[in-house]
Amino acid sequence: MAFSLRALAGAVVVLTACGSPTFKASGDGGDGATTDAALEDGGVDAADAASAGGLVCPGALPSGTCELKNVCCMYKLNGGNNNYQGTCGTAGKCSGPAPPGSSGDPPGQLVCTRSAQCNNLQVCCIVRSGGGGGGTSTSSCAPLATCSATGAVLCEMGRPTSSCPGGLAACATSSNGEWGLPAELGTCGGSPPK
Fold first, then answer.
1. Confidence band (pLDDT; 50, 70, 90) for 84?
2. Mean pLDDT over residues 122-144, rounded?
């Protein structure tokens, strides 16, 4: 799904894969700039949403990304805590075969990899289910308050500041081993699982 922006009577309409169209108030001169209040509520700016692109999915062929309509399936490989291989699942599921060298753990399922892929009032939230080596991480679009209580905001290391909205600390990998994330992804402020 492609993102598009259209000026509409002093507002910006952002069409996203994770939610319905959202409307953002323009800056003083109708220039399309997002107000600080929108960012404080966990939103992202229009330019970031327009360039959201695909899901970062290291190892997925051919380019290390998946289309937004799909899901990034992160499989843990044998030989280390932060050794992962991504594949693109379809119809929101990781139903294909695991890549060679997979540890046999269930894959993490990421439907977003940063908040620009969600609507204005949501962030890309990662949560961890199950404990120990058998747990899995999943991401989805959720309100910031809900995410803060149950998980952490997922972000892309290639965009350490812009993928962490609303004044959250920059993207960090300090808790990636606990989340089951590759080095290309992280959590805002390096937040560990709850």
1. confident
2. 86
Mean pLDDT of 63-89: 85
CA pair distance 77, 74, nearest whole angstrom: 9
Residue 172 confidence (pLDDT) above 90:
yes
Q: Three-state SS string across the chain, please?
A: CCCCEEEECCEEEECCCCCCCEEEECCCCCCCCCCHHHHHCCCCCHHHHHCCCCEECCCCCCCCEECCCCEEEEEEECCCCCCEEEEEEECCECCCCCCCCECCCCCEEECCCCHHHCCCCCEEEEEEECCHHHCEEEEEEECHHHHHHHCEEEEECCCCCCCCCCCCCCEECCCHHHHCCCCCEEEECCCCCC
Domain range annotation of the chain: 1-194
What is the C-alpha separation between 186 and 1, in angstroms, rounded? 24
Task: Please tell me the pTM assigned to this model.
Answer: 0.70
Other C-beta atoms lying within 10 Å of the C-beta of residue 76? 24
Per-residue pLDDT of 28-65, as tens digits, reads 333 333 323 333 334 433 334 334 568 889 888 778 88
